[in-house]
Design goal:
single chain, mainly alpha
Length: 127
């Protein structure tokens, strides 16, 4: 029984490492396809790739009821990249990086932003 448990642990570790590699590759490819600066670091890229493969394969399974498609296959890779691309698009839309509604001055950058505003208003009042 101990050998069987060890084999199951090894099998699950291999699956997790395979998904980490697969998610990283699909997330990087989705970021390479979309132009512009990309938000997030390596963990966000990994999560985007894994989430994209889940979304892509779910959409494919919904519309294509013939047979199940494994995420780690050529067709699964294509839909995973498409799903990661969709996640990146929505992430940029929610972060406000695709739609600029008034230039860079509308974003609050920290305490220096407020100091410069106070100085500007103080200069206007003294004039």
């Amino acid at each position: 029984m101990d050998g069987e448990f060890s084999a199951q642990i090894q099998h699950w570790c291999e699956i997790v490492l395979m998904w980490v590699g697969f998610g990283t590759i699909t997330g990087l490819l989705a970021k390479a396809i979309m132009p512009g600066r990309d938000p997030g670091g390596p963990i966000a890229t990994l999560a985007m790739g894994v989430g994209g493969s889940i979304i892509g394969c779910a959409v494919l399974a919904y519309f294509y009821t013939g047979e199940r498609v494994s995420p780690i296959s050529p067709l699964g890779f294509v839909v995973a990249v498409a799903g990661a691309f969709v996640i990146l698009t929505f992430y940029r839309l929610l972060a406000g990086r695709m739609i600029d509604e008034g230039g860079a001055s509308h974003r609050v950058r920290g305490p220096s932003f407020f100091r410069s505003r106070r100085r500007r208003y103080a200069d206007q009042e003294t004039e």
